[in-house]
Amino acid sequence: MMMRRVNVRRLTLMAILTAIALIIFIIEAQIPMPIPVPGVKLGLANAVTLFALFYGAKVRGENLHNGASRMPRPINVQIPYIKHPSASSPSLTTINVFTILLCRILLGAIFTGRPIVVVYSLVGGILGFVAQIIMKRFVSSKQIWVCGAFGAVFHNIGQIVAAMVITGTPAIIMYLPILIIAGVFTGVLTGLIAQLTLSRLFS
Amino acid sequence: MNKSERTIKLSNRFWMLMLGVIVIISAIIAVLLWRVPADYARIYHDNVLVDVINLTTVTERREIEITRDNANNVVVIEYGRVRMECANCPDGICVRRGWVSGGLIPIVCLPNRVVIVFDSSDNDVDAVVG
Fold first, then answer.
1. For residue A199, how many C-alpha atoms fall within 13 Å in the half-sphere facing its CB?
2. How far is CA A94 from CA A14, A57, B52, B122, in A?
3. Is residue B126 one of the residues assigned to a domain?
4. Do A180 and B22 touch (CB under 8 A)?
5. Kindly report the CA angle at A163 between A39 and B121, in degrees rounded to 5?
6. Is residue A69 within 8 angstroms of chain B, CB to CB?
7. What is the CATH number of the domain that holds B58?
8. Which residue in chain A is spatially nearest to B19 when comparing CA positions?
9. Cβ-Cβ contacts under 8 Å, A177 against chain B
10. Is residue A165 within 8 angstroms of chain B, CB to CB?
11. Closest approach of chain B CAs to the CA of A60, in angstroms?
12. Which chain B residues are closer than 8 Å to A53 by Cβ?
């Protein structure tokens, strides 16, 4: 059997992103939401997923020349190998990003919730991830907020379907319009976080 | 051939319009659901019907306790309205929802799998009970 070579830089980057997402997820779970609607939350951990999805594209040189930023020049961040992406910079594939997401969901459930929470997070997380992969083909690196909005909306749809199946109550679908509205706003927010972080790293 | 050339890019205005339309349509549907009168409340726990209440015929305050498995929820019923008084779930979203007197949007306690569903007629109730 051939030994597969492990890209240590990529592995490290994935571990760091998982840790960041997990910390955001755990802190966010402690903040009560002002709207008493089950399933509504900021979903800030998704900013890491979006960052990772578009980070790979940035390193591979896709989407890099997509219009000039209208924002003032960001502060120079001194991270040499990120600032000058080269062949040695770790690139993240879709599978890598999905691994980060799965690790965050499973570890997050262990740290914060009851086992049943895993089901909601998994169904929502996977559906939202698929939506984001599809949307990624239609947006530029200045439109990550669009990707985030669709990801959040489909995350909420996935959660509602999981809740309908688990509780056996189809009437829960009545929450869908509210959850779609919430998803658009929280998704744009997390998308903008990922977008601004990336634009500062690759300025 | 650069990969980015094969993907379709649409303008910011297009996406804003699209998300705006989605939000407005959802808001209209939410308001319509909110305005439907609800005369019947059905309480489910773990997909099992616990109680059916005709909210228009309730004369005095009544408490329904649901204690099974790990769930411990208290539902309070008054004339025309229902609320989850207390629950031992970690988020307490169902309790914070407060009194519900109309609309088709159910009160849900996901961690304890307790759901209060509203209905304007008792057609479905007959189907479940009968």
1. 22
2. 12, 10, 49, 50
3. no
4. yes
5. 105
6. no
7. 2.60.320.10
8. A184
9. 26-27, 29-30, 33
10. no
11. 10
12. none
Same domain, B88 and B31: no
DSSP-based three-state secondary structure for B48? strand
**What is the arithmetic mean of pLDDT over B30-46?**
85
Give A136's contacts (C-beta < 8 A, 6+ positions apart): A53, A54, A57, A147
Residues B60 and B115 in one domain: yes
Q: Are B11 and A67 in contact (CB under 8 A)?
A: no
pLDDT tens by residue, A44-69: 999 999 999 998 777 766 544 444 44
Look at chain B and report how many structural domains it folds into: 2
In a domain, B128, yes or no: no
Residue B66 belongs to some domain of the structure: yes
Q: In this predicted model, what pLDDT tens digit does every residue of A35-45 receive, in sequence order?
A: 878 878 898 99
Q: Domain containing B22: what range?
A: 1-35
The answer to whether B23 contacts chain A (CB < 8 Å) is yes
Q: Is A12 helix (H, G, I), strand (E, B) or coil?
A: helix
Rounded-to-integer distance, Cα B94 and Cα A175, Å: 13
